[in-house]
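User: Batch of two.

Assistant: Item 1 of 2:
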Amino acid sequence: MAKNQAVNLHSGDAHLSGQLHAGQLEGPLRIEENRRPLANLNYSSGQLNGMSQTYHANGRVSAQLPYKADKLDGQASFYSPEGQLQRKAGYRQGLLHGEAATYYPDGQLAELESYRNGVRDGVYQRFHGNGKLAHKAQYLNGQRLDQGQQFANDGRPLDSDGKPLSKLRWWWMNAASPGNT
């Protein structure tokens, strides 16, 4: 029966500590520099498994990363040094899969996109800083299906010259077809 063996490695101001079981990393692995955390990783049978975290130099979490069998699998979140959520994205077997959202520094949604097996698939949306839709396009298997539609920061669609529709025309389009907002 194999027993656990402590691992403590030092290199300058860096320190790595964890456990080996039968020669493979097992359980939490902590990496520090100058006594500040750089990463808390979780291993099972020598592979990354479970939630791991990396840290900015100021000690705040930079990323929360779900692993399964050494590959990202689940909802990953990425943060600025100030602690603001910058991006969250779904992964499956190491590939982007599902919804991915990117945020402005104030927390407002900047982009929303969908992935299937590592390629963009579905609706892609980019937003103005005020929360209004700026661009919308449709993708299938990584290929753009349409030219997409651009929008002014007040929500009005842009014409082929990049100019917003007149407010009267926009109002009329919305009044005649309420589902077009």
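Item 2 of 2:
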Amino acid sequence: MSSRAVSPVRVAVLISGTGSNMAALIDAGQAADSGYEVSLVLSNIEDAGGLAIASAKGVATVSIPHKPFGKDREAHERAVDEALRAAGVEVVALAGYMRILTPWLVRAWEGRMLNIHPSLLPLYPGLDTHARAIAAGDAEAGCTVHLVTEGVDEGPILGQARVPVLGDDTPAALAERVKTAEHGLYPQVLTSFCKGLARA
């Protein structure tokens, strides 16, 4: 029997690639004082590298490729939602999930879906964040964890981490430093978020 007064919140991580943030979330969730555990890793890419990593860490995985659904994004999302609910998932963490979500899925998980974005929102929503920060002459860049809403990268901010922009930075070099910051920030914010959830 667990020594915890409250069982950890069951989290699903959605990925499309190698899942470095996913791995950081799994590892942090296995700590004794974590408020969550990653109980499922789901990908829209059948052979996403992160699925093997998650399996090696003892986490259940499922792939639901989007291509068979054609342009019907909501039909794909209904299959994703069914898998999440079948696994008893309570909170969804997007970690490099390269799909633009429909309002249907956003509403289905409203207030319980988080995302990490590689900029200091509201600066630079969307793509090419590191190149845009360098081009603007910013002294700092970073990452943001936020709740997912129907607007792209517009949801309430839950936490941020900052890194300096160096004089000789390239987008790739800056991206690596921001990625390291992400691996610390996302588990920290997810732990706080899950510990703060009101549960029956």
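The first strand starts at residue 9 and ends at 15.
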